[in-house]
Q: What sequence folds into this?
């Protein structure tokens, strides 16, 4: 499945590249806003310099693309279009196919991201000097983020077996993610209680931690604890999905699908 994904994405690499360029608009807007604010405040905001903002949001572009998963709303499409019935005939759980397909996509994403990162770096001049350990942790962390987000998106997607209004829950999830993950702004700029809350929820480990592992000054202990947190939330998400999936399939079968 991963090989199929790579081949299919390479066949449509031009469309994929324009899609990625479109996604760059979001971080560039954030970057321009925060660098402008930083310059107006003497070159830094809460200790984050203009160059560090640039590094944060340039790395953000890769983390965001690595975090693209089979989203919760698409489960409604899968059920409505009758695709789920066919998927259930496969030998493995449908989650495994989703994970493999989107994981294969990531290898193409990384290759296409490199020239984008070079271009953004030439314009915004990021302050980025990671150590070898930080690079290794970052590589592991972006995959950890992918698995954490996949588990929770799939779990929320199970709501579509019971209601046609699952999009409302998904919207709430996304709004919470925007605020507590480091996706909208670096968590260092948020109030202390928000940072504390983020430590105990999965969102930070899908955006903030992977980015900070490369651009921040996290200690070795913090880096390893972050990877551990990703493993923990992946397991929690998988357990939640497993229970929800079993109940969802019973309901799906009960209505004569």
A:
């Amino acid at each position: 499945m991963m090989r199929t994904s790579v081949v299919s994405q390479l066949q449509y690499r031009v469309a994929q590249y324009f899609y990625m360029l479109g996604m760059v608009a979001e971080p560039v807007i954030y970057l321009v806003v925060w660098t402008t604010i930083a310059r107006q405040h003497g070159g830094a905001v809460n200790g984050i310099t203009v160059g560090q903002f640039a590094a944060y949001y340039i790395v953000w572009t890769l983390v965001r693309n690595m975090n693209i998963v089979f989203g919760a709303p698409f489960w409604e499409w899968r059920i409505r279009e009758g695709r789920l019935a066919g998927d259930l005939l496969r030998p493995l759980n449908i989650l495994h196919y989703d994970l493999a397909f989107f994981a294969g996509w990531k290898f193409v994403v990384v290759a296409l991201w490199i020239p984008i990162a070079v271009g953004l770096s030439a314009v915004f001049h990021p302050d980025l000097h990671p150590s070898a350990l930080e690079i290794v942790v970052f590589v592991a962390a972006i995959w950890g983020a992918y698995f954490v987000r996949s588990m929770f998106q799939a779990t929320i997607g199970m709501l579509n077996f019971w209601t046609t209004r699952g999009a409302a829950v998904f919207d709430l999830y996304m709004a919470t993610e925007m605020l507590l993950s480091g996706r909208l702004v670096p968590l260092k700029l948020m109030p202390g209680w928000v940072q504390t809350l983020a430590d105990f929820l999965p969102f930070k480990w899908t955006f903030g931690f992977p980015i900070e592992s490369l651009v921040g000054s996290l200690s070795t202990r913090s880096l390893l604890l972050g990877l551990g947190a990703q493993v923990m939330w992946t397991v929690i998400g998988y357990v939640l999905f497993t229970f929800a999936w079993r109940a969802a399939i019973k309901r799906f079968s009960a209505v004569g699908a």
